[in-house]
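A sample follows:
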Amino acid sequence: MIRPVCIVTGFLGAGKTTLALGLIRSGELKDAVLIVNDFGDASFDSVQVGVTGTAYRAMDGGCICCTVKDDLLKTLHEIPSLFPDKTSVWIETSGISNPSDLITLFDGSSFLSGSYSLSSVVAVVDGRSSLDWLLAQESAAEQLSAASLAIINRHEATQDLDQFRQKLETLNPLSDVHVLSLKDEPPITSDTFFDLANCYTHAQSRIPIGHRHESHGYTTQTIRWEGAVDESEFVDLCSEWIEQIGPGLLRLKGTVRTHGNDQFMVMQGVRRHVTFDYNHSGWPTENVLVVIGRGIEREVVDSLLSNILSLKNKETEAEICQK
């Protein structure tokens, strides 16, 4: 059996996992094995996919295009025996991966070329981002350049997305571009991603690509703590910290236990667009926060943890005074 493969890429927070979850709910990925890569050591994306009951494998703690590439090769070798009834493979890269490094895998291995066929490379694009900003991010430019299909996620976007789409089509003429709200609209069918009749052809794009570095130039840092905090004080604290960090902050996600709530509060941030809510289904049930960015020193993240712990200590002091 030759299994078609779809590589799904997209810069940090674009909506890759949202796309996958929508396709899982609609039944479009029922015959696929999902491989989910998270740059950090706390995997939010694979946990959300895992609770759906779909066939999946998690690859955390590095980029699937470089530091955990061997894990990907091992998994691809195991899929035919572990999931003999699954007929396709969906690979979700981390937000900073270079898909070109994965594309070459399927040509360079006799086993992979005899077992898999790369059907498409999908770049999910955050409709809130300007194209100039995206092209300035090395990984995002690489992702758009390699894409055979681009999906502009228009959720909460305020810019003219028709013009945005036209610019993408001009920069990458071989890329088919769709505009969707991945959170609110029905997903497109799996035939768009898996079609053995339409094998992937690398687009000859006009997107400028810089020199790639093994480290990608990004850092991911994780903090954890015990206990609960006051919701309002926590939101105010994080909002102030985000403003102080500035443009180096690219992605923020986490779960937090707050007083008086049975569910954990979910924190989702793409640059300075941050939301807090209690729709925690599929998220880790622990206090954990992942910070991804450029030029953010560890002591800056540790200062956030110290301030969070001070909220806990203040609550403890109030409880003692009440006694």
